Amino acid sequence: MGKTSRLVILTTALWLATSAAAQVTALTHATVIDGTGAAAQRDVTILMESGRIQDMGPSSKIAVPAGAGVLDLSGKFVVPGIINAHGHVGANPEPQLRQYALYGVTTTTSMATDPDEIVRLREEQKRGTLRGARVLTVKHRFMGPDPKLVTPEQARAKVDEIVAGGGDFIKVWIDGQGGKRAKLTREFCAAVMDQARKHGKITMAHVYEYADAKMIVDEGVNILVHNVRDQEMDADFIATLKRRNVSVISTLMREEALFVYGEAPAWIDDPFFRKGLSAERLAILKTRKREEQANDPELARNKRAFEIDKINLKKLSDAGVRIAFGTDSGGDPYRFFIQGFFEHRQMELMVQAGLTPMQVIQAFSKGASEVLGIDQEFGTLVRGKAADLLVLEKNPLDNIASMRTIQAVYLGGGKFE
Ligand SMILES: [Zn+2]
């Protein structure tokens, strides 16, 4: 290569770097719901630069720099990107993260035993390559029975291994599945929780039964990643959750999806649902899956769990326990826990349970970012945080289903397409 062509390449590279850094996008005259719980603010301008919200405020006070790309959002609504604090990605993550992002989910978790590829992707994302939703992982999920993981010493060693392998959180799965499965012992769970605390890691527990929730809260867990679904909670336990700053994720959509396909709901023909799965998968859903759920011996139990989840969610919310948004979407494809769609249906179910649209928006922004320990960077729309946000055609405060009217998804300040 000659001297001149090297110089041209160098100059071009420098120019690209400079223009990328200086590229400002201005969203002007939008109505903004920032996720803090504050009322919607009309006629706001948001300046996005280098992946962040560089400035934000009344359009009359924010000067749009010369050369900025300007989008007039008069009549449109801006909300934070959806954070799914209970999701599953697993193998072949990229198309799944892309699907989440297209539905407006800008951050998800993956909470089973996750391949190393997820850690690699997460690191790429931190360097700025965003081909889909941001992802955080538990790396491994403790669940009984596992002959290699029995003693407290084994539990502690495994926690060390998860942390060394790049796990963001430590998760235990405590569920007897109606007596069909051996649960993790209290002693084992206590060792996991204690070792996680030594590493400063946030802890999560899958629970179903009230007794298990009480046990693991006693052992210091930070998040219940499902609601209690066998009994209504009492005021004492709810007060304990609040005092100990334990957060709860109610996965109502998951509970509904255990039986609703058997009832052939109209929404499975809605284009908004249809875009989340292939024609082949839809055909299976309408035949084999429908049959199975309609004749499921667990049908009554599943419906009851769904109703109890709703009651407990409303109680927790009214008492001021932190509610974080999550769905359990993804995982085994045969579950038909459709990534992206699930998050929107979950919002509607939370409103059916008695929460306001504002509380739902807070749950997927402020609440979810706080429980995952990422609220310095993500969650609410505030100057300095990541520019992960959605532009909507209609006001979600009037009807939470308007969260579906997505005109644009901005992920790290760039329009995701
Ligand atoms: Zn799950």
Helix fraction bin: 25-40%
- Give the CATH H-level superfamily of the largest domain: Metal-dependent hydrolases
Low-confidence runs of at least 5 consecutive residues:
1-21
Distance between the termini: 37 Å
Q: List the secondary-structure elements in sequence, H or E.
A: HEEEEEEHEHEEHEHEHEHEHHHHEHHEEE
Ligand list: zinc ion
**C-alpha Rg (nearest Å):** 22 Å
The fraction of residues in strands falls at 15-25%
User: Which CATH C-level class of the largest domain is it?
Assistant: Alpha Beta
CATH topology of the largest domain, by name, is TIM Barrel
Anisotropy-based shape: globular
CATH hierarchy: architecture of the largest domain:
Alpha-Beta Barrel
The average pLDDT value, as a whole number, equals 94
Number of strands: 17
- Count of helix runs: 13
**How many domains, as an integer?**
2
Biggest sheet overview: 8 strands, mixed
Name the structural class: alpha/beta
Give a description of the structure.
This protein is of the alpha/beta class and 417 residues long. Helix content is 38%, strand content 19%. The chain has two domains: 3-79 and 403-415, Urease, subunit C, domain 1, CATH 2.30.40.10; 82-379, Alpha-Beta Barrel (TIM Barrel). It is built from 13 helices and 17 strands. Strands 1, 2, 3, 4, 5, 15, 16 and 17 form an eight-stranded mixed beta sheet that branches. The protein has a six-stranded parallel beta sheet with strand order 9-10-11-12-13-14. Helix 6 (210-218) links the parallel strand 11 and strand 12 (223-224). It starts with a helix and ends with a strand. Bound molecules: zinc ion. The site of zinc ion has 4 residues, from loops.
